[in-house]
Structures are given as structure tokens and as C-alpha cells.
Write a structure and sequence with these properties.
Blueprint (H helix, E strand, L loop, with lengths): L16 H14 L8 H6 L3 H5 L18 H7 L7
Amino acid sequence: MESGAHLYNKDRDVLSKSEALIQAKQLAKALNCTDSKQWLECLRKVDSKELAKQNFTVYPLSGTEFLPFMTQKAFKQKIFNKSI
């Protein structure tokens, strides 16, 4: 994680997976991607200019293949630049 942007809250990620999913579904609804089974595919097809008009912020989400654990845990256990 560059610039330490995710270091301000040492005890908790900015968003949990469930919170991120709720926000993603709210974004999908705002962009008329309301089909309960295809909403994610619909979001992938939204024009970037339309997406840029939406008021949302993107945060890193730990527990994924790209960020397997919280930044603070990585620094504390000296396991940065490694996978689980």
C-alpha cells in the first residue's frame, strides 16, 4: 500500500466486505443495474463517464487476493511483500 493512506485506523479497515457489498449494490441501483443476478455484470458495462458522475469513494478492501490482510498487521508482523 503506497503512501500509508490506509494507516489512519489501526483497529479496523475502512470498510468491511459486507459494507463494501452494500455500497456496491447501492451504486448499481443508482446506475439502473437492478437485476438481482446480473447487477455486477451490468456495472462492468457502465460507461466510465457515467461512473465518474457518481459520488462514491473507493477504499482498499483487505481479505482479498490483492490485499490479503490489514496494512497494520503486515507492518507489525513484518509480512509485507508476501502472500499468506
